[in-house]
Structures are given as C-alpha cells and as structure tokens.
Give the backbone structure.
Amino acid sequence: MKVLHVAETVKGGIATYLNMLTLATQQECENIFLVPENQQQYIDADSIGYRYSQRRPKDLLTMFKTFYRVYKEQQPDIVFMHSTFAGLLRLVCIIEPGLKRKIVYCSHGWSFSMNSRKIVLKTYAVVEHLLSKLNRKIVCISKYEREQASIIGIKNSLLTVIYNSIPKDVVIDEAVTLTLAEDEKYLVFVGRKSEQKGYDLLDEIAKYLPNNYKIIVIGDFQSGDFSSQKIITTGWLDGAKVNYILKNAKALICPSRWEGFGFVVIEAFRAGVPVIGSNRGALPELILTPLNGFTFDLDNMPKLEKIFKVLDDDLKWHQLKANVSHSFEDNFSLDKFKFSVLQLYSEIQAGN
C-alpha cells in the first residue's frame, strides 16, 4: 500500500505525528512524504521537498503544482493531507475527481477553534465545511475535535477519531542542571510563547504553589518573561533532557486556552507524571480527574491550591503515578495507534 503524506508545515507536533506514522506502518505501507524543503530535516524518513517560505499565493501555487506532479508520478493508493493549508489541496479534486476517494485529511487542530475574531473563525469554519465534501475521511485527533467538526456541519460519517501516540521507550539525558534546593520540588511547563499555551498565566499559578515548589519552564522563554521567583526558565532543550526533567517532576502544568489534543500531556503520562491542565479543548478528555491528574478553570485559579495539596501528599501522588502509566498503555500506545490507522487505510482501499 502506497501512502502519500502532504504537509505545508511540519515543525513541531506534525513532524512528531508523521514520524509516528512511519514507525507504526513501515512494514505495511510505503510512506512518501511531500514537505517544504526547508523542513525536511524534521522527518525521519526520506522525503520530497518543495520550495515554500510563506503563505503567499506564489508559495501556495508551488505547493499545488508540486503535489499534482508527485501524485501523478507516484499514483498512491491513499493521500493523507496534514494541517489546514495542506488541506486546501483537496481543491485538486475539481480537476482530478477520482482523487476524492483516496483522500484522508487531518487538521491537527481546527483553525476555527482558536481565539480570534469571530469573522475569521467563521471564515475558517465555512472553508473547512466546504472542503470536507472533497475527501473520503477526516481524522480527528480527539473526540472534542470531532464534536467541533459536527457543530459546523461536517457529516459524522466522514469523521473518525484516532488519538495521537508516541513511542513507549525514551532516551533520557541526566546532564541537566536545575538551580533547586535539596528540599525543593517542581512542576514542569513545556511549550512555546503562544497565547494558546497560556504561558502568561504561570505567574498567577505560581501564587498557589506550596513554599517549596517551583515551576520549570521549558521553551523559548527568558527569566524576564516572568515576575515570580518560583519560575525557572531553561530555554529549549532536546527531547532526552526534557524526558529527564519530566520524569522527576511532581506534575506537568498545562494551562492552555485551547487544545485540539496536547502531545505534551501523553509525554508526561509516558514518564509516569500526572498532569494539571485547564478545562479547555480536549484536555478534560485526556486528564481524568482524579485518576491521572486534575483539570481547573482558568477563571478560578484559587482551586489550584487544593490540587497542589494533593500533589504534596506522597500516598495520593504515588497512586496518581500508577494510574498515569495505565492511562498511557490503555489509550496512547503505538499498537493501538497502528491498528486504528491501518483499519482506516483498509476501509478506504476497500471502497476504491
């Protein structure tokens, strides 16, 4: 089975997803990746690059031309389009009607679920609804994403939920220096400097921490980005160092304003670490209070004080950690991801 994957941007979560697809299906599928040439380094497998720098008409036209050429040359059984702008390639079905039967699309987080002006969100919703008529299936990365698609009128028969996954085995690099006193404990925040991730709420969150707790912030931040003395920034770290810091944390803190899934949540679960996350987007679907963590309302921060007290209770914390490991195995294992993806591919092939 030959699968052509197309993406307009891959850095970050989409690259993780594409590499996971390779790992999961390499025995059953010939995976071909078409990505911007300046981002090919993020894909573990060989890929085909195309010139693309910005979302200008010229660059989008290049993406369309390259995709059509590669599609005709490779004649794939399935075409998997990743992210919103790559999803525009579904318009090729207008000149190639047979392509529709082969297309799987995943937005990796609906553009109309972001915080933005209503007119912008409405436009995104209308475009996604119209384009949904030009594919065979749409992969939603959470039940929340499926619900949002249904709300804007996308047919339920087109939608399927496949949770993201990550490898169980990890590399851990202990060569990390954290400026912590011997009796100090910490939470971890991992993310970019984005309104979506809620990094600007960390100063307020820190107010409710016990005295001997800190928040380690991993990402494109400097100490001057925060006023609380309880916050320590590390800058970006490679995955092996992040794994070490996560493994020794009391919890991951995830105050996102919207989240289609949240890779960092299952990275924490894999490390055996509970997650404290906002009650926004798909997070309450992953974080089952009080089984593997806690959710809180961004408009009710004082609730965090009670949550932090549970974390500081060793007996309750160790029970949380045990539950977390089961959550990862039961819901986000590579085997489960592989089964769901191959089942989807088989369904599409059977219909062709």
